[in-house]
Design a protein that fits this description.
Oligomer: single chain
Largest sheet: 5 strands, antiparallel
Shape: globular
Structural class: alpha+beta
Radius of gyration: 15 Å
Order of helices and strands: HEEEEHEEEHHEE
Strand content: 25-35%
Strand order of the largest sheet: 2-1-5-6-9
Number of strands: 9
Helix content: 25-40%
Length: 164
Amino acid sequence: MSPDAPPEPLSEALSAFIQSGLSITVASRDGGMQTSLARCFGCRVSADRRRVTLVVQHAQAAAVLADVRTSGHVAAVFSKPSTNQTVQLKGQDAVVEPQRPFDQVCAGQHVEALLADLHSLHEYGEPLLRAVFQWDPADLCSISFTPSAGFIQTPGPSAGNRLP
């Protein structure tokens, strides 16, 4: 594939999975290779399935946002708590974007789906879950990137393998 060729799209199944209300974290790094990490409050995939956008909060993600602006590198982990199904996507062209009108809807739907999944484990009470995943609609922005690599991270013999 030539460097000018468009990136391969994510599969429909992977695209649906990463948008299904998962526990999502995003990491980046600074010039000294120090890692920054933040919780995400939503994910959306472009219609052509070539770009992934993660919704974060400025206040919680300040270091990640600064590192993305400097390096453009991200690694995002998407995990379904009730099954431990987990994937990681990496990108090298990440950009920080201002809040879009749909971000608040995306965050609301994402958090509700994640809370439902966590609640199904019967280990966590509703007030605790709501406190942990509380988000401020006025504080949202996003990180958008083209996945350049993807890995299976579900515990087991395939962990660490590239996504098909």
